[in-house]
Every structure is written in structure tokens, then in C-alpha cells.
Amino acid sequence: MPELPEVETVRRGLQPHLEGVRLTRIALNRADLRFPFPDRMIERLTGRTIVSLTRRAKFLVAETDTGERLVMHLGMSGRFSIHEAASDAKTPGEFAHARLTDPRHDHVEFETEAGTRIVFNDPRRFGYMQMFAPDDEMFPGLGPEPLSNAFSGAVLHERLQGRKSPIKTALLDQSVVAGLGNIYVCEALFDSGISPKRLAANVGRARADRLVVAIRDVLAAAIAAGGSTLKDYANAEGGLGYFQHSFKVYGREGAPCVSCGKPVARIVQSGRSTFLCSSCQR
DNA sequence: ATGAAGGCCTGAGGGC
DNA sequence: TGCCCTCAGGCCTTCA
């Protein structure tokens, strides 16, 4: 699934097609994704203009001209694709390439006044959509945005106090810091030389400072590369990210550590794979 | 009140 | 070819 860099890449792809654009038709092709769709979702969105498309952690937020907001989460396998009216006019099949997604999993379709169709496809249906009234708080309890000024070594250090779980698990907790997933946690821990097994409470201020720098750097580099493409992820144009070629530990079990040459190890923490170099990370 | 495990879904890939 | 097993970028719920 998309972590923060992939969601940001999707946002940038969708933004020019949605911002300032009126929605003329919404279709829901089933009753639910992970959760039921919001009450009266079609009525609340049809004819509305999207005034902004922003991102909070791994959530996309589309605000309409009524102040209502549609929140979209991609789960593990959610994708958006854009089908412009102009490209539909091409000779059928002429420039066609294989569909990236199975049409059976096209669960939501948005059509805009420009004739563009924006389709949400999600085979595993771990994604979901919610709507919030203008005054509703959308993300109570969600931790700081890692690329914002609200996140710092001091903030992270404070938030890790008293935590008995390993630092790896703590970083996946969205209430500690929001937007990280398994890949970028593994990479940031490697980059900062911190063992994923170290108890969160034993990450001191110096390590927290290094960790914050590593988290910011790896997220920024991944966004610049258009995200990472593994099995399920593609950007809104159907293109692939490139950051997976830059992984230092993730998915590299047994391969030599880029720093010391010893084999990268895989362990399981809280039921999820962790990749690390036990020699470089302490 | 924490933290770990289970479960939700489908699809891909490996071993036989 | 096909079957069966394991695993997957998330996260909510349940259990210890």
C-alpha cells in the first residue's frame, strides 16, 4: 500500500483534474469498501466544485464549495486512474496498453465537467471513504505530519517516552507520527543506524534527532522519485514510482548491506517483516 | 491501559 | 498446468 510518498504522488496527479473542477457524476459500484460509503455521498458531491485536494498523512482530502470534505484512504491496494475525454477519442486500441487494474474492482467513479473520469480501483478493499461536515474534526489523535514543523527530534523523543514497544512498532503507530508505513520505517531506521528492536523508550534525544532527519530525508527522496512501486502501487497516470530501486534494506533479505557488506536480515515484529543490518543498526 | 496477534480481502509468486 | 501455501505498502478489533 501506499505510504505517505505514494499518497502524495497520487495527490499531485489528481490535483490538476480536480481542483477548481465541478463533479458532474459519481458512481458507487458496490455498497462498501472496508466500511460503508458515507450517507448520501452521491447527493452531497454531485454538482459540487472541489476547491482543494490536500493530504494529511496517508489520507487524501477533497474540500468542496460547501465546506464539506471527502476523505479517501487507499488502504493496501487502492489506486486512482484518470481517463481524459480526449484520450477516449483515439482510435480504440491504437495506443492502448494493458489495463493495470481489473475492472471488477473499479468501485468508485467520479466524472468532472471536463469529461474526465477518475476511477478508484481497490482489489483488497482495505481502502475507504468518509465525508465530514465543515466543522467536523477529521483526524482526532493522529500524530504530527512528519514533513511539517510540528515534527522534530524533541517532539518525537517526548512521544516515545514510556513506550515499551520496539521503536519499529512505535513508528508504525499513526498516533506517534502520521504517514509512515513498513517500508519507510525500515529505511529510516537503517539510515539513522538505530536497531528496530531497540525499545522506543530507550531512543534518546540524540537518536531521536537522527531518526527525524532520516525520516524526512527518505520521505522527501521517495516523493521526488514518484513513490515506490511494488505489486499494487501506480500513480494516477498509471505510471510507476522509482524509489524501490533506492531501498537499502527493505525487501533485501540476504543481500549485502550497502554500508558494511554483511547480509541484510529479516525478522518479524508485531506480525510484520522488518529488514535490518544488525551490524550497522544499534 | 498497553502491546501483540487476529482478521479483513484479493492477488502474486514459489514449491511441488 | 494447477493446487496449496505464504506473503503483501494498513489498520481496526480482540485478546492477553
Arithmetic mean pLDDT: 92
**What do we call the CATH topology of the largest domain?**
N-terminal domain of MutM-like DNA repair proteins
Succession of helices and strands: HEHEEEEHEEEHHHHEE
Principal-axis shape equals: globular
The number of distinct helices, counting runs of at least 4 residues, comes to 7
Give me the CATH architecture of the largest domain, please: Alpha-Beta Barrel
Largest sheet data: 8 strands, antiparallel
Structural class, from secondary structure content?
Answer: alpha+beta
Q: Which bin fits the share of residues in helices?
A: 10-25%
The first-to-last residue Cα distance is: 28 Å
Count of strand segments: 10
Number of domains: 2
The fraction of residues assigned to DSSP E strands is: 15-25%
CATH top level of the largest domain is: Alpha Beta
The CATH homology group name of the largest domain: MutM-like, N-terminal
Rg estimate, integer Å:
20 Å
